[in-house]
User: Fold these one by one.
Assistant:
Number 1:
Amino acid sequence: MSRQVPIVGFAALVLIVQSARADDAMSLPEHIDRLVEAKFQGKPAALTSDSEFLRRAWLDFAGRIPSAEETRKFLADKSPEKRNALIQSLLNSPHYAQRMRELFNVILMERRGDHEEWDKFLQTAFEKNVAWNELVKSILAPNPEDENNRGAAFFTTKRLSKVGQQSTDFPGLTRDIGRLFLGLDLQCAQCHDHLFVDDYKQVEFQGLYSVYLNTYIRTDVKFPAVGEKEMRQPLEFTSVFAEDQNKTGPRIPFGKEFEIPEAIQNKKPPPRSKEYKAPEFSAVRLIADNLPSAENRLFAKNIANRLWFVLMGRGIVQPLDLSHSDNPPSHPELLELLADQVIAHKFDLKWMFEQLALTKTYQRSSVIPEGQESPKPETFQVALERRLSAEQILRITLQATGDFDRLTKLDKDGKHSEEYTELKKKFVDSFANTATEPEETYDATVKAALFALNDGKFLDLVVKREGNLIDRLAKTTDTEKLTEELFLSVYTRMPHEDERSEVTEFLAKHGAGEKRDKAIGQIVWAMLASIEFCLNH
C-alpha cells in the first residue's frame, strides 16, 4: 500500500530543492551579497556612481587615482561590463603588485622599518601571484639560499633586533605570528590563561613561543637570515596564579602539538662552530609547514577576514586579531563561505580580491539614504569611508598635481630619485602611524595638518611648473573647462553646480597673470587637503 505525500510537505521539499539549486547557480559575489543583505536594518545605500567606483577601485588595486583622461574614458564608456573590465585591468596591471607590496608591508611590519630584500620578496611574490599560504610559509621559515625569497626573513629578524639594553622580544614575535596569521592576540595568555577571553589558554601561547624562543639573527651573512637552535626538550612553564608545572612541545595555537623525537631528546649538543648548520629537528619548519595550510581553518578565516577589511573598511570579525567565541563574526555564514573559497582556490589573493570587488556590497555608495539614520557599520549596508595609507596619499597627490611620471620614474639602476625618496619619507612621517600601531582607522592629526600647511616640498607641488596641473589649468581660458579638468584630476568626478560657481567667483577676484596662477594653486591646495581627497569613500 503506497503512502500519499502531503501537499504541504511536497511543496516544502520542492522549495528546498529549488533553493539548493539556486545556491549552486549563484556566483560567489551574488552569494556574498545575499548573506550580507539578510542582515540589513533598513534601506541600503544605492550603488556608487561610475566616478565613485572608478576612484575606489583604482585606490584599492593600483594605489593611486586615475588621470583626468582615464576618468573621461571610463565615464564615456557605455558598456554594462565596464566595471568588471576595470577590475580585471587593474588586477593585471603592474600597479597591482606595487600596491600589494606596500599594503602587506604595512600590515605585516606595522611601520617597523623597511629593507630592500624584504621589498623584493613581497614585490616578486605579488608579481607572480604566489599563494598566500606559500608566501606565509616563506616568512615563517625563510630559505637563505633562495635570492627571491630570503628577504622574507626580515619579518622575523626585525622583531628579534634588540633596542639598547632591552632583551630580545620573543614574546612580541610570538604574539605577532598569532595576530597576523591566525587572528589571535594571545599576548595576555603568556603568563596565565587570559583573564577575559576564556578561549585563550596559556598553552596556546607557550606552544608557539617555545619555537621562536630558539631563533636568532644570523651574523654570518650580509642579508636578513634567521638561525635556529635545535629544540630538544618540551618547554616547561607555570601560571603566575598556580604552582603546577606544565610543558609543551612545538604547537600551533588551537591546533596540533608536535612531539620531539626521542632520538633528538637524547642527542648530545654539537660542538660550537662559527659555521651555521641547520638543526636536524626544526620546530620552525614544522610550524611553517602546518600553520599556513588548508587544514588550519583559523589561517583561512584570518586572511578572508583581512581581505574583507581591506575592501570594506571593517572586518567580519572586528578587531581583526580578536577572534574568539565571545567576539563572534557579524556574519558567521559569510566568513565560513569566504574561508571555504580561499581554500578551494588555493589561497589565491588576486582571485578573492576580484570576487569581493564584483559584489554589490563593495560597490555600494558611502552616502546614507535620505531620511535614514546612520546604520551600524557591521551591517555593511552603506560603504564605510576608509583610511588611505601614507603611500596612497603620496601617489594620489602626485597624480593629481601632474607630477606622478616625473617623480616616480626609476633610474637605470631601478632606483627612485632622491627627490622622490625624500618626499615619500615626509609623507610617511606625516600620515603614517607610529611603529607597531596598526593602521585601521582614520584620525586627522596635527602633524598631517602642519605638513600640508608648511612643508616646502608639498607646497611646491601646487606651484606652476611646465606640464603640471597648475600649468594646464593656467593655460585654459574657459573657466568651465578649467573647473572640469580640475575636478576630474583631483576628485575623479565632474564638479557640482555650486562648485563651478565657487571656482568661477574665486578666480574672478584674483584677476589674471601670476595672481590667477597663484589662485589656481590655492584651489588645488585646498582640494588636496580636503577629507574627500584623503579618504577612500
Note: Strands lie at 215-217, 226-228, 235-237, 246-248, 386-387, 535-536.
Number 2:
Amino acid sequence: WGAKNLVVRRSEDGGATWGPTIEVGDGIHAGGTTVDEGTGDILFFGHPEHPPKDSSMAPRTIYRSSDSGRTWAGEEAVFEKDGNGHVPSLHFSEVGITLRQGEHARRLLRPARVYVEGAGYNMAVFSDDHGRTWRPSTPFPVDGTGEGCVAELEDGRIYYSSRQHRFSEGEALLHERLHAWSHDGGATWTDPAHSSLPDGPAYRGEEGRGANYNGHFGMAAGLTRVPV
C-alpha cells in the first residue's frame, strides 16, 4: 500500500514519449496531484506512511514545482482539522482542480478522505492561498466512502464521484458509484445518490463488506473529464 518513491516523468509531446525519472522527495504518494492554474505551479502531495497511524497528527508535505516539473521543493503546508477533529488524509484520491467560475474562481480543490476505525469517509480540501493553507469540506454525506474525484461543471456546481467500501448492516451492497454535489465551491456536499455508473463487478456474495472490497475494484477514483 504505497512505496516511498516520490518520482515523476515529464512529457513534452502530449504523452507520446517520456523523459527520465525525476526525484521529487521523501514519502508515499497516492494521488491528488494538482495544477494551480493561477500560478502554473504543480503541487505533489506526500505522506510518511499509509495509512496514517493518527489522522489528526500525521504530517502532510507538499512538493511544489514552478518549472513544469523539472525541479521540486518541499514545504510544510497547513491542513486544518475537519468538524470531527480529523486532519484529512491525501492518499488514494484523484487529482485536484482549479475552480474557474464564480466567487471561488482560482480556488484549489482536491478530494481527500479520513481514515478512522470503522467506516471512515470521503471529503475534500480546498485552498484560497495557492496551496499553503488547506481547509476541510464537510464530510461526503455517506459513511464508508473513499477514493473520490471531483469535477467542475459548466453551471458552477462541483460534482463528487465516490466509491463506497463499507455498508451498514442490512444496507444493500450496491456496486455503483456514489455522487454528490456542491454549490459553494466544494465546502459542503449535498444530495448523495448512487449513480448508474458501475464500480467493478457486482457483489459476489463471498464477503460481507460490499462490492468494492478485496479484489472487486473497478474504476478506482478515476473520472474522465471532458468540456461539457
Note: The chain is about 0% helix and 35% strand.
Number 3:
Amino acid sequence: LNISIITGKTSQIPVAPDLGESILKKIVSQTKNNEILKRKFLSYKRTYARYDLDENGQTMDRKRKEITSIALGGNEEIIEINDKPTKKGKSGSPRFNLMSLLETMLKLDDFTIVKIDKIDDEYFYVISFKPKTTIKPSGDIEDIVACVEGTIYVDFEKFYIKKLSAWMVKPYSRGGIFGWNIFNLTKADIELTQEELNGIIVIKSIELIDKYSLFGRETSEKQTYLYEEYRQAEPN
C-alpha cells in the first residue's frame, strides 16, 4: 500500500489481503445502525429525475421528476410530480436501496485497497472492487452487480463511504428465446456521494446512467437523485 501522501515520501507497508473486505463489512454494519439514526432523527426531501440521452450521452428531454418528502420515522410522501403538486397522501417508496447494494457487493465482490488519498484535508481509503470468479450470482440484481466493478472512497477514521463509482465491464442479458435476448443491458454506471451531518451519514446525490434494449428497442437514460433540506430532530 502506497502511503506517500501521508509520509511525504514513497514507501510501502504490508496490507492483509482481506483488509478491504473487512472494511466493507464494518461499513455494512455501521450503515445498518446509521439507517436507524436517520429514521429517528432526520427529515429531508429527495428529488428524482429521469432524462433521455442522445447517442453521445448528452442529456435530452426530462421524462419525469418527483419530489418526495421523508418525515421522521421514514414515512415518504410524494409532494410533486413533473412540477405539479400532488394530492395529499400519495405515498412514496425508496427507488434506491444502498443497504441492499452493499450487502450484494459484499457477497459477490473482491475488495482491494489501492491507496490512501487526501480530499479537503481528510484521508480516505481508496478501495477497488470487482466480481469474484468463484461465486455464481442468483437473481437479476446479483446478475447485474456481477457485471460491474468500481472504486469506493472510505473515510479513514469514521469508515463511511464518501464516494462510490461503478461501471459495467460486461453486458447483461435475460429472457433469451431462439438465440435472441428480450432484454440487454450494456451500460449501468453509478456515482454516489455522501457526507456527515452531526454524526449521521447522509446521501448527497446519486447518478445512474444506463443503456439497454427491450424487445430490440434501445434506450439510453440518466436518473438522478438529489437529497436536500435535511432537518435534524433534537434527541429526547
Note: Residues 19-41 form the longest helix (23 residues).
Number 4:
Amino acid sequence: MDSGVGYGLLIIFFSFPLALFTIFLGILSLIWKQGLIPGPIVLVVAGGAVLFYVYGFFETQVF
C-alpha cells in the first residue's frame, strides 16, 4: 500500500472539515460586524458550532 494514501485521508477527513468550519465562523463574524445579528446570538451559534466540531472529531477517534 502506498504511504501517501494515509496523508491523503488525513487531508480529506481532517483539513477539509476544519476549513469549512473556519469559513463558517469567518462568515458568521462578518455578519456580526455588519450588525445583522446581535452579539449574544452569534456567541450561541459559534459556541454550538465549536462543540459540534469537537464532538465530531472525538467521535471519529473513539468509534
Note: The longest helix spans residues 4-34.
